[in-house]
Amino acid sequence: MLLAVLLLFLLTEFPAGLLALLSGILGTDFFNNVYLNFGETMDALALVNSAINFIIYCSMSRQFRDTFSYLFLPKCCKAQEMKPTAEPSRTVATACV
């Protein structure tokens, strides 16, 4: 899952970073002629990155789905309540003589 998120991030954010770096190095001509033309595309790629990351997390992590439904879904819409995964620990009193 981490590899998929990292690759998606690199595919969507690397072009924006590269254009920003070239804009800083090459000056206002590059910014006006190139960066302004691709700015909206870079913003759209960042939105796509966020949406697909949410889908990746939901599809690959049951804990993420359970926590998300616990936090954001009303109690009447939940199919099941979050249940603890392990029994609570018990303390046993002992005495040393």
TrEMBL record:
<feature type="transmembrane region" description="Helical">
    <location>
        <begin position="44"/>
        <end position="60"/>
    </location>
</feature>
<protein>
    <submittedName>
        <fullName>Sex peptide receptor</fullName>
    </submittedName>
</protein>
<keyword id="KW-0675">Receptor</keyword>
<feature type="signal peptide">
    <location>
        <begin position="1"/>
        <end position="20"/>
    </location>
</feature>
<keyword id="KW-0732">Signal</keyword>
<feature type="domain" description="G-protein coupled receptors family 1 profile">
    <location>
        <begin position="1"/>
        <end position="57"/>
    </location>
</feature>
<dbReference type="InterPro" id="IPR017452">
    <property type="entry name" value="GPCR_Rhodpsn_7TM"/>
</dbReference>
<keyword id="KW-1133">Transmembrane helix</keyword>
<dbReference type="GO" id="GO:0008528">
    <property type="term" value="F:G protein-coupled peptide receptor activity"/>
</dbReference>
<dbReference type="Pfam" id="PF10324">
    <property type="entry name" value="7TM_GPCR_Srw"/>
</dbReference>
<dbReference type="InterPro" id="IPR053219">
    <property type="entry name" value="GPCR_Dmsr-1"/>
</dbReference>
<keyword id="KW-0812">Transmembrane</keyword>
<keyword id="KW-0472">Membrane</keyword>
<dbReference type="GO" id="GO:0005886">
    <property type="term" value="C:plasma membrane"/>
</dbReference>
<dbReference type="InterPro" id="IPR019427">
    <property type="entry name" value="7TM_GPCR_serpentine_rcpt_Srw"/>
</dbReference>
